[in-house]
Amino acid sequence: MAFDMDIAGQAAAKKSARICLENDLNVRIVLLSKGKDVADIIREEKSLWEKAVAEARGIVEYFFENAFSQHDAKSPTGKKKIAQELLNVLKDIADPVEKSHWVKVLAEKLDVKEETLVEILRKAKSEANRTGEEKKETRQDIEKEKAVEKRIIGLLAAFPRETEKQREVLSSDDFFGKEEKEIIQKITRGNTDFDKVKNLVSGYEAQKLIDEAIFEVEVDREEGRIPHPANELGKALKRHKKSRIKKKIAEISCDIKEAEKAGDKERLKELMEEFRNLSEGLGE
After folding, report:
1. Which pLDDT tens digit goes with each residue over 131-181?
2. Whole-angstrom Cα distance, residue 206 to residue 175?
3. N or C, where is the chain less crowded by C-beta within 10 Å?
4. What distance in Å separates the CA atoms of residue 101 and residue 60, rounded to the nearest whole number?
């Protein structure tokens, strides 16, 4: 994966790297000069691109270099910050042997006991298990997605004028639920009167969804929780977009593993580029 070295590029690299670690993907990071685009470098300065590829870092190596370059590994405060940053990365490594290797390396570089770092990781894992169970439960994920989509529908229905511009760029293909897709499809065809939309959608569930969505938004409006409808819709659409991206990343991660097993380098290259682009989208 290739990233430029500005703040946004570094943030994207970190997010992409963590997703790779969680999915046990063997990927290296190519770091580019600030403001440099991959396509431009390959076209205009091919030698720089070849040099950058030759100097590509392994994911964990990149994090180590970054952490140790920013903090003083000899001071107690610096050690603490380095340990916090890198243990937060190491906890995401799926392979236990690789994780154990890097914990040992970190202990040696910080001159601390390996057992101390292992214990911190163990506590972090226990805490993650307690607080992150909902992430493993598909049903809860679906309920969250449906709640966001209902919110979007409610805001569009209650504030047709304020949300007109946002409605124009919506696509029913981006929605998960069957009823939600149908409702958005009718809305994007120019139907802003939701009484008419209710008559156009098929089935009781879709009509019920419209009523509930409008009611919930109307309650929030009466209680003053929606001072700026367009802004509120923008927030809901942003959450919805991130949910779609995360789902797509999970699918591509599986495809990447299959391409690696098959030795399909061309397919792997395409998937990694799509993976990188989607990962960057999470930070927008």
Report:
1. 554 444 467 778 888 999 999 999 998 898 899 899 888 998 899 888 999
2. 14
3. C
4. 11
